[in-house]
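Q&A log
Question type: sequence-to-structure
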Amino acid sequence: MNKLASYTVVAAGMLLFSSCDHKELCMDHDPHAPRYQAEIEADYLQIWEYSDPEGVNWQHQWPLGFDFTYESLNPGLPKGLRASVYNENGANRIENMPTHGGTLPLASGKNDILFYNNDTEYVVFSDMGTLASAVATTRTRTRPTYAGSPFTKAEEIENTVSAPDMLYGSSVLNYYPERTVDPTPLKVHMTPLVFTYYIRMEFKAGLKYVALARGAFGGMAAGVSISTGETTEEKATIMFDAELTDFGAQAFVRSFGAPGFPNGNYGTRADDVYTLNLEVRLRNGKIKKFDFDITSQMRHQPQGGVIVVDGLEITDQEGAGGSSGFDVDVEGWGDYQDIPIVL
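Response status: OK
Response body:
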């Protein structure tokens, strides 16, 4: 060994021994040493709506005419779990783990931990600096042919957005980890922050003239607190595509739910208006719009449910004429615009 190499070995050894003056650092190098950590054990409440005692119990009164079951709307499990840790000494961290959890390294002292699934595309996370301020919203989406509902006041025209992805959330407050060799089990119950509305639009005549359908669901919450599940007061209109059926059109629309919920006076918020817009493109290339005030149906369905409108009609005069070169297979009609968000 030459003189330069021997100096290098000696210097490395001195650095190693000096670093071990800090006991915690030495333990971090030893996989079998005690450390602050928790073994997250996550389970999920897989439901698509919360039943209101004063509303319809859809689970037990599911209409026979629906060609799918109540349970088929329950959301699946996410692909992964994320933990955002807020430590009282500033040792914050973000950790990704498998769906049902894993080992979460922590710092000593009080930790508040926010949990949510990490596989969303359209959900936007903001104000993540603290657990209490963390909010989930969704991306802005526009449709030139939609200018707002006639049932909404001009000064209250809402932002139009994409439906959120399925989102689960949970939080753990004031968690003081123990220094152990084996991580301490920490059970986390993940509950839904996004719910599904089944929207059913029934035609009485002229369905044969319809080539494509889409809609807008107004009056819904623009965001939700990830830690508490309370929705924001700000409202948004959710844009959606609809599927043509033998009775008309249907859509399964995800939403954070009613704005400002839960609260004690939800059922008496007389100023809240919920709207539904249906836009159909006919085979002759024309577009026809239908607008509905669905406030009465939403009164007892603040977090998921079933919305039904009927009596829709396309007259023979409206449906007459050629195709005007319209391709009925054009996906999305080419008119939506997703607004990119810089994160």
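Response note: Helices lie at 3-19, 23-29, 295-298, 316-319.
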